[in-house]
């Protein structure tokens, strides 16, 4: 016959197991992502309207004499709070090229931030930041291509002018790929034209091309990808010998959300897969509660073992008498 003490011990052990399971951080089911480096010829075939090779301006282009620097693409997540929203963010609904009544890409962000450093004619380093949102500049969805059944690359290109009188246009392109069971955001491309007053005293007047060529994320069909942390992508100059602009990042400011190709409801985001950085803050409460429960049950076990040992010791003394 099972003794009452054994039943109590069994209950405590089960409770400890539950506490440990409750305290464990939930795992995110990340799809298996293979980092893909895309050649310039691939991008050119996808987006024939924009050449990958930087084209310098005519005789006004300065000769480069600085040592070239090859910048490795990086992704960082910032814990710094984003600026207080004073605008209506960025939102684009890209229709299917074959059916204009059907959504093919939904893109939403509080703001897109382009940050860079450029070299002036005096050799000094000058920082430059573009904060992009719908009411900031002349921000336009300049070009897009997307079909629901496309097995290649879809894209959307955003361009902007800092002032209505600007003669130069800057552009930012996001490339999406459709796969058998998933879709992905795989390339970010930035084109900067320095022939305008956006870059005072810049050393070289030309058009510069930058790319982030790794998979940003991969997701299931009919699901969106959502993140409430800013995510920065280090872009690499496609011409490593050009060092006029030596540090370039593109940041998606929270909350940002993207979906492509397949939609359960037209013009609406599907169920969101939350980016791993966002999940971190959601696991704090379960971890704390589970930890407290674990400590409490551990204390109960210790007290139970001590009391049981004492009872046995007293019983042995009584037997000796």
From TrEMBL:
Main location: membrane
This protein's record includes keyword Glycoprotein: yes
Key words of the record: Glycoprotein, Membrane, Signal, Transmembrane, Transmembrane helix
Keyword Acetylation belongs to the record: no
Alphabetized InterPro entries for the sequence: Lysosome-assoc_membr_glycop
Gene3D superfamilies (alphabetical): 2.40.160.110
Bilayer topology annotation: Single-pass type I membrane protein
Transmembrane segments: 285-306
Record's GO cellular component terms: late endosome membrane; lysosomal membrane; plasma membrane
Subcellular location, record wording: Cell membrane
Leader sequence segment: 1-23
Biased composition (Low complexity): 48-87
Region annotation (Disordered) ranges: 48-88
Protein name from the UniProt record: Lysosome-associated membrane glycoprotein 1
GO biological process: establishment of protein localization to organelle
Domain of life: Eukaryota
